[in-house]
Amino acid sequence: MIGLGSYAFFWQQSERVPAPLDLIGALERTRELDVDLFQICDYAPLLLMSSAELGEAALAARRLGIRIELGTKGVSPDHLMTFLRLAERFDANLVRSMVYAPGFRPGLEEAERMLREVMPAYEVEGVTLALETYEQVPTADLIGLVERVGSHRIGICLDPANVVAGLELPRDAVERCAPLTRNVHAKDFAFSRQEGWVGFTYSGAPMGEGLHDYPHLLATVNPEARGVNEIVEHWLPWQGDPETTVQAEIAWTTTALDYLRSIR
């Protein structure tokens, strides 16, 4: 299933724009785009919402016919158990996380111990924990960690764009992670020369216009057949002013949805 994530609304929910969208507003925009899945990912206000506010957001998702996934950072048992409880509130069956959280960088052995502590609870609740590929943890180390934990409810959130900063090739990450992939972050990316031709900028691109060989990902991971959801997000730089930036973000989302639907 193709879904949208919080990073597809990064600027629309930012305090840099007038009247930023709240969570229910993002869900309503998702419904307007005929999308049935939304990943609340790295959305800081989520942990500050009252029980009543969480209930209103969960009710809005059900009313709109939108399935929810959650996303956070870190493998601290207390934190992951908090998100397991949030998953129950939202009827979510997947939580995406990362090995490191701001201010907390456990070694792989410690991360394994922490994950072993929480995975039985995730298994009982039927919730999958998907650890994302990114440059701070080499892909081989992430695969090894997931395999050693050995739970049928742990896997990988595949984001090939992230691994480039660790001097890895996106195509290699796709092929190595495919068997363990439980979630995909779908965005395009490209390099451009900086002014004066001194160095490059690695940033986002409209889906289908950058360097990401997404057809290769589809053929390798086979997400539809395996029930692996693809979550649209963007690396859209600030465009100089709020209105231009928001309009570009909306256009990138439409482009991404059209592209992903067209290549099936």
Give the beta-strand count.
10
Strand order of the largest sheet: 1-2-3-4-5-6-7-10
The percent of residues in helical segments reads: 40-55%
CATH level 4 superfamily? Divalent-metal-dependent TIM barrel enzymes
| N-C termini distance | 11 Å
Tell me the Rg in angstroms. Answer: 18 Å
- Count of DSSP-assigned helices: 9
pLDDT < 50 stretches: none
Structural class: alpha/beta
Domain count: the total is 1
Architecture per CATH nomenclature, i.e. the level-2 architecture: Alpha-Beta Barrel
Describe the largest sheet. Answer: 8 strands, parallel, barrel
SSE sequence, one letter per element: EHEHEHEHEHEHEEEHHEH
How much strand? Answer: 15-25%
Global outline: globular
State the CATH class: Alpha Beta
Overall pLDDT, averaged?
A: 97
CATH topology: TIM Barrel
Describe this structure in words.
It is a single chain. The chain is of the alpha/beta class. It has one domain: Divalent-metal-dependent TIM barrel enzymes (TIM Barrel, Alpha-Beta Barrel), CATH 3.20.20. Helix content is 41%, strand content 19%. The chain has nine helices and ten strands. It has helices spanning 23-32, 51-64, 77-90, 108-125, 139-149, 170-177, 214-221, 223-226, 242-262; strands at residues 2-5, 37-41, 67-71, 94-97, 128-132, 154-158, 181-186, 188-193, 200-205, 229-232. Helix 4 packs across helix 5 (139-149). GO terms for molecular function: isomerase activity.
Attribute tags:
alpha/beta; 264 residues; eight-stranded parallel barrel; TIM Barrel
